[in-house]
Amino acid sequence: MDFKSWRQDIETWYNAYVSGYLTAGDKENIIIKRDHSLRVCANMVQLATALGCNDSEQQIAAVIGILHDVGRFEQIRRYGTFSDARSVSHAALGVEILNTETVLNSTDADIRELVITAIRHHSALRLPSHLTGKTLFFCQLIRDADKLDIFKVVTDYYQRASDKRNPSIELDLVDDAGYNPAMLDAICRKEDVDYRKAQNLNDFKILQAGWVFSLYFTPTLVLLRKRGYLTKLRAALPRDDGIDALFEIIGKHQIAE
Q1: Whether the predicted model's global pTM rises above the 0.90 cut
Q2: What is the mean pLDDT of residues 14-32?
Q3: How far apart are CA 159 and CA 84, in angstroms?
Q4: Domain boundary at 148, 164, 185, which?
Q5: Is 124 found in the same domain as 182?
Q6: DSSP label at 2?
Q7: Which of 28, 68, 221, 224 is most buried, judged by most C-beta within 10 A?
Q8: DSSP state of 84
Q9: How many domains does the chain have?
């Protein structure tokens, strides 16, 4: 299997597929998700390289990155939101689309199943326990690469000096003062918290900070800190002793591999 040509064919299909959604509907958010997936692809290759993957594995990583959010475009067209809680699982919708389209039909069966599995589980609260080997690795890798770029998207958005709000990025959450102390306590204990429990935008920001504890690979954490996303996220939250304590825990966090 020529992995480089395969990746190029996937990228060509992806760009054509997304262009079909740019002619109508929510063009701004289509572009946001298109560009997000391309950056996640770059993150996947960078992380795979740092973790010692060979060239074919890097190409597989790139394809998973390109395709991981393919369900987002149909999600916002049908439902007008990126909130899975208010619509459907975008990961499941993406798998449905890939099973309907022909883009992976010529892919070796084992590679195709690996790609589909990684996409199916990339946004789950936690990975199923039965995953092993390469499948587990790529499922973990896409979750890290995805979070890494979501940190970029949301911190860029929070830093904007503009009154224009984007409900899709905010998941339609109200932007009022305060936060849920129970959520903060759970995050400080490094617990997995379902984003659907967020009651306002500050809760969602706290939950995003807690994603640090669910990262799998040290190179991801290194890039997260190097790119300054945590500093930007802290600046977007209220000055508060409890939140200060959370970021102190985050600053000391290391990944046990």
Answers
A1: yes
A2: 90
A3: 25
A4: 148
A5: no
A6: -
A7: 68
A8: G
A9: 2
What is the DSSP code (8-state) at residue 236?
Answer: T
Residue 215 half-sphere exposure, CB side, CA atoms within 13 Å? 27
140 shares a domain with 21: yes
Question: Which long-range CB contacts under 8 A does 217-221 form with residues at least 24 apart?
Answer: 217/47, 217/50, 217/51, 217/140, 217/141, 217/144, 217/255, 217/257, 218/254, 218/255, 218/257, 219/46, 219/47, 219/50, 219/51, 220/47, 220/144, 220/145, 220/147, 220/148, 220/255, 221/253, 221/254, 221/255
Query: Average pLDDT, whole number, for the chain?
Result: 94
pLDDT interval class at 163 (50, 70, 90): low
Please check whether residue 103 is in contact with residue 13, taking contact to mean a CB–CB distance below 8 angstroms.
yes
**CA contacts within 13 A on the Cβ side of 101:** 19
- 19 falls within a domain: yes
For 136-189, the DSSP string reads: HHHHHHHHHHHHHHHHHHHHHHHH---S---TTTTTT----S---HHHHHHHHT
Regarding whether 181 and 127 lie in a shared domain, the answer is no
Model confidence band, residue 83 (pLDDT cutoffs 50, 70, 90): confident
- DSSP alpha helices (H): ranges in the chain? 3-19, 27-50, 55-67, 71-79, 90-100, 109-121, 133-159, 181-188, 201-210, 218-226, 229-235, 241-252
